[in-house]
Amino acid sequence: MTTSRAVPRVLRSDDPEAAHLLEAGATLVSESWGARLTVDKDVLARCRAAVGAATAAGWSVGPVGSDGATDVVDLDLSAAADYPRTAATAHDPPEPGALAAALAGGTRWAFGAWAAGRLDAVTVLTDAGDRVETDFTVTRASARRRGLATAVKGAAVLSLAADGHARFGTGGAAVNAGSRRANEALGYVVVERWLHLVP
Ligand SMILES: CC(C)(COP(=O)(O)OP(=O)(O)OC[C@H]1O[C@@H](n2cnc3c(N)ncnc32)[C@H](O)[C@@H]1OP(=O)(O)O)[C@@H](O)C(=O)NCCC(=O)NCCS
């Protein structure tokens, strides 16, 4: 019997098993997506425009050093309830000491937007080998829909591209329209969809 507590199976939308399960009556409980960006001059122009718009609106945008790890975690905790939780997109705030060490050691990067000294948005990224992958992006609730997620993501691409990184990856829950639009505004292209199916 299917119950609300059943654990969904996460399958790519083009996996024949997904079609098979749907035909057999499985319930689609949620969806997620993965996107990729390859740096080119158009992408860089979009990133510059996003950073410029946030700067013109009064935020300063730039890298977050290891001494900013606590601010990142505090901001992330303030928005913990706003992350859509699906079978494939749960998010746990980082531990401040571990984040500070990763930022200091260069294994993770963070880019933020500040107004009056307060961190209002941040994106945190990790080197995933063949690409730089976004770990999470968050904007303070009171500062949303002003282009800040787009700006900090744009700042990340600009800075890391200047250091030679050419491929970026990200993803999220289908219900998170803001996250997807921020990425697409910069040139991320959705390359995979995942179906969360309860048989
Ligand atoms: C998702 C999130 C980071 C977006 O931050 P933001 O600073 O408001 O995003 P932006 O202002 O850059 O908006 C980007 C685009 O998404 C749109 N958008 C933002 N929030 C939206 C929403 N709730 N519904 C529909 N569209 C939305 C904006 O209008 C903008 O579109 P446009 O370029 O066509 O104008 C923010 O809502 C948030 O912190 N959510 C909680 C944490 C989370 O879910 N993070 C993402 C997963 S890692």
Short description:
With about 200 residues, this protein is an alpha+beta fold. The chain contains six helices and eight strands, in the order βαβαβααβββαβαβ. α2 crosses α5, α3 crosses α4 and α5 packs across α6.
Q: Can you put this structure into words, describing what you see?
A:
With 199 residues, the chain is α+β, with helices and mostly antiparallel strands. The protein has a single domain, classed as Aminopeptidase (3-Layer(aba) Sandwich). Helices cover 35% and strands 32% of the residues. The protein contains six helices and eight strands; from the N terminus they run βαβαβααβββαβαβ. An eight-stranded mixed sheet has the order 1-8-2-7-6-5-4-3, sandwiched between helices. It starts with 8 loop residues before the first strand and ends with a strand. Residues 79, 82-83, 121, 136-139, 144-150, 172, 176-179, 181-182, 185 line the site of coenzyme A (COA).
Question: Secondary-structure blueprint of this entry?
Answer:
Blueprint: E1 9-12, H1 16-23, E2 27-38, H2 41-56, E3 60-63, H3 69-78, H4 96-105, E4 108-115, E5 118-127, E6 132-139, H5 148-162, E7 167-173, H6 177-186, E8 189-198
Helix pairs in contact: 2-5, 3-4, 5-6
